[in-house]
Known about the structure:
single chain; alpha/beta; Arc Repressor Mutant, subunit A; D-Maltodextrin-Binding Protein, domain 2; 3 domains; six-stranded mixed β-sheet; two-stranded antiparallel ribbon; 9 helices; 42% helix
Amino acid sequence: MLDVRKLRLLRELARRGTIAAVADALAYTPSAVSQQLTALERETGVRLLERTGRRVTLTPAAHGLVEHTESILALLEEAATDLENAARALSGVLRIGAFPTAIPTVVTPAIVALSTDNPGLGITVVELDPASVPDALRTEAVDIALIQEYDHVPVAPHPGLQTEPLLEETVHLAARRTESLSALRDTPWIAGTPGTLCHTLTIRACEAAGFTPSIRHHADDFGAVLALVAAGQGAAFVPDLAVSTLPPGVTLTPLPIHRRTHLAHRHGTTNHPAVIAARAALQNAAQTALP
């Protein structure tokens, strides 16, 4: 019989590309990952990996097994959901992943309501950059999470995950005075860390306006971003949830750009009672998060 843990490793190798990346994501050593995959080949009696020097690629048979693995994991999640539904009250631990600006405005009111209605349910909040949410869900580091996309940075569907709309915000141009975007082509910019959605948005939105931004500062906390704008250090893009407290000297200009937030969870957990309760609580909190 196939070992689900080994199948999960094969699936992650198909997604991440290297044994070292799989080991890092799942807290294994590279040698342990390699040994488990070799054991899986032995158990199946089929060659799953092609090894060329230090490189490893999946065979066609391995890719087919990965497709079955997604279905197998979803079925296991459904089985666990059925067991939870048989219980009279919610229990265990629910892990919620969220980006920083959503924690005080959406997640905190939601977990207060969840805890009040379900005192036996333990709730853990994990702060995550939206770009890392799919991996956190797939590796079961969190059970439900908030995932984002911007108009200029659409996110492709993620295998094994199911999403639903939660919130849509206007993105504003933050500067010392009211300006058009194109008028700031020679202004320094403040953007998120390279690799984040905010950093990519800054580049693509400015390019759409006809120029490449000169990014002087990198900051992922919007409070820090707005403080830098107030200090005359540059311009930045900020969404609605980030502007509840505006420093003196900062002017916001609404742009025809939107940030869309979705709830995401693994296939097979849609009907899990804790996930159902969390989805409802987060949807209710999102309705009052914006003015």
